[in-house]
Amino acid sequence: MKFISLAIFAAALGVASADLQVTNPSSDLWWVDKSINVLAWTCKESTHDTFTVLLANSDPKILVSPIAIIGIQNNFDCSKSITQDMFNQPPGTGYTVILADTINNTNVYATSQPFEIKPLGAAYPTTTTAAAADATNTTSGAAPSETGKNTQSGGSLGLKVGASAVFAAAAAVAGLVLA
């Protein structure tokens, strides 16, 4: 019985360390209307191969229900440029990006922090998020280049922590099996 309990705990630990998270946009990393924006997520920590990308807003006057902006997105890409042709929503606050099951969009894998879509011509964020304080995980806003792109990169700190937790749980299970 102890083996089954520990195996369930190890499996839960593995799932918990495999969380999918949206790292951009966020409350500190906004998008600019009618511009090229970056969507980034923690691809290396996720067990989901693909997902649908939805855009939602907490104000039903702006957006009644979430809309799909990418039907099927491969997880291994880690980020995607969102062009002005992929969504046509007015500038405003209360937006979120939702990563969901490709067949059942109500099965949500991850939701971004609420963020703002700023008007065309607004500057991209130049602040660095708390996660970027670690050199191995740098998700930061960047001033737009001449082409108007907002560029970020995702790190692998979560993978190192998640993998060590999974290996420790697997070693504990293996120890019980051999005992």
Which structural traits does this protein have?
single chain, 179 residues, alpha+beta, 6-stranded mixed β-sheet, 3-stranded antiparallel β-sheet, 9 strands, globular, disordered N terminus, disordered C terminus
Report the average pLDDT across residues.
72
CATH topology group: Immunoglobulin-like
The figure for the number of domains is 1
Give the overall shape: globular
Structural class call reads: alpha+beta
Gyration radius over CA: 19 Å
Catalogue the unreliable spans: 1-17, 128-179
Question: Which strand-content bin applies to the residues?
Answer: 25-35%
Secondary structure tally: strands = 9
Helical coverage, percent range: 10-25%
Q: What are the secondary-structure elements, in order, as H or E? A: HEEEEEEEEEH
Gap between N and C termini, in Å? 14 Å
Number of helices: 2
Q: Tell me the major beta sheet.
A: 6 strands, mixed
User: In the CATH hierarchy, what is the architecture at level 2?
Assistant: Sandwich
For the record, the CATH class is: Mainly Beta
List the quaternary state of the chains.
Answer: single chain
